């Protein structure tokens, strides 16, 4: 059995746990703790170590779905989780106060991995129309020399997570 | 009157030609794109070549400056990117100027190109530096479909047969409808609406305030409508001026498929088109996707301004070595098989 894993990263409250739940065949195992600082106003608990979900593929291999902790104080977990990942999904909460800065944080942190594994960006809570328009996210990535799919997604919708995986698949096929 | 361009980037040029054709209905004078004998020349003064041309000829020739800002104080100026309303206003202004200066000459031009007879837009636009589509002589003319109405950028109530009206507010870049439309799962009735021909479309002027007070409307970004109307009415016909075998195309960025009607073939096309500048024929060959699907996808990307037309023949990606293995691809495919 090989370890096959997809990693979901992104800002706190962006919907990583929800997106994993949408496709996991087991209830997502998470390690929530109370949030501290400004974040506690928005969300009572957040993931401390990781979220974990699973999907058994037809050949018996398990796809492991990992969600990184959102708050920066748990960053020490990020390199552990990303090691050996098949693909990376970055989720950004558009309704957060500085979503472009959030994206920048994750792009900078995972930059080396983005160069080596297919990566897609999902922008959540776009319906609230509080954040930048989608073009501003593209412009930021272009400035960084990156050409990644960016989708406005609802993490609760299973088909949105599937869309991101379809994009990862196509990137691998034609890269 | 004849108009041509100087130093415009290829995609600007194609958009300008398309807009010129769409503006034709609302103008008293027929404007013909003609590189050979132009009365007026649209010059991209932000390009070195265009700047040089402007400095050399702006006194002797009738020029329109094309830029983001009118830094040269040109009497005739068109702001980038080309917008239909601004183009129409400019051409009206130029026409008025011409008719007061040289009425006789204009009358002669009008006799040459009588505007009383509807001139098909496809004939009005000469094919510029391109070879027509190989399979068919038919071209996709957006002005003959609902797409053309949306491209006019007028605040309108749009009605097609018995469908719920669509309220189009270009200043908000949005459409409004009483119907909750899921672009990911359109039914056949909705598709009929989106592929409506212009003869089936009725429009009424609309005040934006009428919409602001209504609480029963769903709001949608205009891109979703431009995309779906183009995708569904193209039917394998390519936009004029583009060649399946000659024109190399690059996608500027991934379309936001989460809000656009799409199929898996479109995602695969996007993945290759953001990386490589290829002709539509090459794309069909490499992906094994039918050319009709490739053409429809290209048209939709073009209308939503997502494509760049490449000037040179080199592929944009210098390193053609794949970073990923076939094993990685087969794992991803098995994940999708499980999920879908």
What does this structure look like?
The complex is a heterodimer of chains A (175) and B (340). Chain A contains five helices and seven strands; from the N terminus they run βαβββαβαβαβα. Chain A is of the alpha/beta class. Chain A has one domain: 3-Layer(aba) Sandwich (Rossmann fold). In chain A, α1 crosses α5. The mean pLDDT of chain A is 87. Chain B is of the alpha/beta class. Chain B folds into two domains: 108 residues, 3-Layer(aba) Sandwich (Rossmann fold); 205 residues, no CATH class. Helix content of chain B is 39%, strand content 15%. Chain B is built from 13 helices and 14 strands. In chain B, strands 2-1-3-4-5 form a five-stranded parallel beta sheet, sandwiched between helices. In chain B, strands 10-7-8-9-11 form a five-stranded antiparallel beta sheet. Chain B has a two-stranded parallel ribbon with strand order 6-12. The longest helix of chain B is centred in the first third of the chain and has 18 residues. Chain B is globular, with a radius of gyration of 22 Å. The termini of chain B are far apart. At the A-B interface, α4, β7 and α5 of A face α10 and α13 of B.
Q: State the CATH superfamily name of chain A.
A: P-loop containing nucleotide triphosphate hydrolases
Output the CATH topology of chain A. Answer: Rossmann fold
Poorly predicted segments of chain B: 103-136
Widest sheet, order of strands of chain B: 2-1-3-4-5
Q: Which series of helices and strands of chain B comes N to C? A: EHEEHEEHHHEHEEEHEHEHEEHHHEH
Radius of gyration of chain A using CA atoms only? 15 Å
**Beta fraction of chain A:** 25-35%
Q: Portion of residues in helices of chain A?
A: 25-40%
> Architecture of chain A, according to CATH?
3-Layer(aba) Sandwich
What is the overall number of helices of chain A? 5
What is Rg of chain B? 22 Å
Number of domains of chain B: 2
Report the major sheet of chain A: 7 strands, mixed
- Overall form of chain A: globular
Name of the CATH first level of chain A: Alpha Beta
Oligomer: heterodimer
Compressed to H and E, one letter per element, the order of chain A equals EHEEEHEHEHEH
- Helix/strand-derived class of chain A? alpha/beta
Helix content of chain B: 25-40%
Largest sheet, strands/sense/barrel of chain B: 5 strands, parallel
